[in-house]
Amino acid sequence: MKALFFLLLFANVVFAIYIQSGSGSSSSSSLPTELHPEKIRLLPATTPALATAACLEWGNFIGTDLQRAETAIAKLQLGDSLNRHMVGEVPAYWVHIPPLKTRYDAAKKIEELKKLGVSSYFHVQDNSEWNNAISLDIFRSEETARKFLAEMRSKGIRSAVMGERSLKQMAFVLPRPTEDVIEKMIRLQQEFPGSELKASGCEVAASSL
Predict the structure, then answer these.
(1) How far from chain centre, in Å, is Cα 75?
(2) Global pTM?
(3) Which of these, 19, 69, 80, 160, could form a disulfide with 152 (CB 3.0-4.6 Å)?
(4) 10 Å Cβ neighbour count for 102?
């Protein structure tokens, strides 16, 4: 009798486990159709400070980072209300090819850079002592600049040099941002690690006009 009792008890336990596992797999299999994950849209987190900001400030940029930021923010088509202002100067390390004699010489050097696989550069054309120099990149860290210079020289760009310069830091200021604009700026800020998006006083924007 005892053997029969334990046999029945064991059978009941096995049946209970089967029922539990079956109901679990059934609920889990129906989960995707109930949640419709393809319809889920993640929204950027908006802090209370940004949501109530009279003005947004996004910065701070120098050199090629500033050029990239200008190109990216222009695509948002925020209109004439967007302003830039200087937020001080910082030491930076400039990897470049020193000024060439003529614009034609600079153009020839740029063609050489393209053949060597260099796609990021800037031809300086102004009335300064740097006219017809070719900027390859600008860095905040001397160590990073030296590594980049070594990389350029390994590609055969022997004329590249590194120099220290004091560069202006720039920030963008946007008055009276709507909720949609704030979301766009949060997404844009995430594409530029190290940049900061914050609420600021609109007197900064007014002084930049």
Answers:
(1) 14
(2) 0.55
(3) 160
(4) 10
